[in-house]
Amino acid sequence: MTSKQTGDKWLGELLRGHPVRFHNAFRMTQEIFFDLLGTLEQNHGLQGSRRTASREVLAITLYVLSHNECIRKASERFQHSTETASRYFSVGIRALVRLAEVVVVPEEGYFDSTPPEIAEDTRYMPFFKDCIGAIDGTHVHANVPVKNQVPYIGRHGTTTQNIMAACDFNMCFTFAMTGWEGSAHDSRIFNFAISDPKYRFPHPPRGIEAYNSFNLLFYVFV
C-alpha cells in the first residue's frame, strides 16, 4: 500500500470537509460519529493500535457496513493489508455488538402500564391494552459460500438472512434475532428466541397479571 493518502488522512479530510461528503461515506454526521466513537471507546472496548487510531478502526467498520463493501476494497481505501483491515473490522463489529446489547432493549418501566398510543386511541383500547409493541421478520441479502448457500436461498431465489425484530411504539428496536437462514420460517425463529434465556427476549417481568402466560397477543404482527 503506497498511496500518500492513508486511511486516517482521508478520514481527517472528510471530518474537516463538507458534511454531505462525510454522510455519503459513513451514513452519519460528523457529530454522531464522534459521539459513537466516544461511547465505544469508553464503554465497549473499541481500541486502535500503535499505528492506527480508534477512529480509523470505527471508520473501516462503518465503511464496510454502509456500502456492503468487501474487505479487499476497504483495505485499498484505507491503505492497509487485507489481514489488517479484516482484524480492525472484527474489532469494530464486536464493539458495536456490545453497544447493541445495551441499546436494543425495552425502556425501563415500559411494561408497567398500557402505552399511551393504545390507551388514548379508542380504536385500540381496550382490545389491545396488553400490546407492548410490534414484531416482524425481514430478509436481508447475505453473501454465503457456495457450499453453504442452499439453506439461505429464500422464496425469491437469492441468498438471504431471515431477521426477526421487535420495536416499541416510539419506533425504537427492543429486540433483534439475526443470522437465520433465508429458508427458516418466522415462527421457528420466534419460538427459538423466546425459549432460550441467553438471547434475552424482552419478556414482561414476573408479577404483572396481564402477562402471566406469554403468547402472541402481546405483539401485533405487521
Average pLDDT, rounded to a whole number, is: 87
- Largest sheet features: 4 strands, mixed
Rounded radius of gyration (Å):
21 Å
The first-to-last residue Cα distance is: 49 Å
Strand-residue proportion: 5-15%
By secondary-structure content and strand pairing, the structural class works out as: alpha+beta
- Net shape: globular
What's the helix count? 8
Extract low-pLDDT stretches: 209-222
Strands across the major sheet, in which order?
A: 3-2-1-4
Amount of helix: 40-55%
Number of strands: 4
Q: What order do the SSEs take from the amino end to the carboxyl end, as H and E?
A: HHHHHHHEEEHE
Task: Give a short synopsis of this structure.
By secondary structure, this protein is of the alpha+beta class. The chain has helices at residues 7-16, 19-26, 30-43, 54-67, 71-78, 82-103, 116-119, 186-195, and strands at residues 134-141, 160-167, 173-181, 220-221.
Would you write up a description of this structure?
Pfam families: DDE_Tnp_4, DUF8040. One of its GO terms (molecular function) is nuclease activity. Keywords: Hydrolase, Metal-binding, Nuclease, Nucleus. The chain has 222 residues and is an alpha+beta fold. 41% of the residues lie in helices and 12% in strands. The protein contains 8 helices and 4 strands. It has helices at residues 7-16, 19-26, 30-43, 54-67, 71-78, 82-103, 116-119, 186-195, and strands spanning 134-141, 160-167, 173-181, 220-221. A 4-stranded mixed beta sheet has the order 3-2-1-4, covered by helices on one side. A hairpin with a 5-residue loop joins strand 2 and strand 3 (173-181). Helix 4 crosses helix 6 (82-103). The longest helix has 22 residues, at 82-103. It is globular, with a radius of gyration of 21 Å. The model is unreliable at 209-222 (pLDDT under 50).
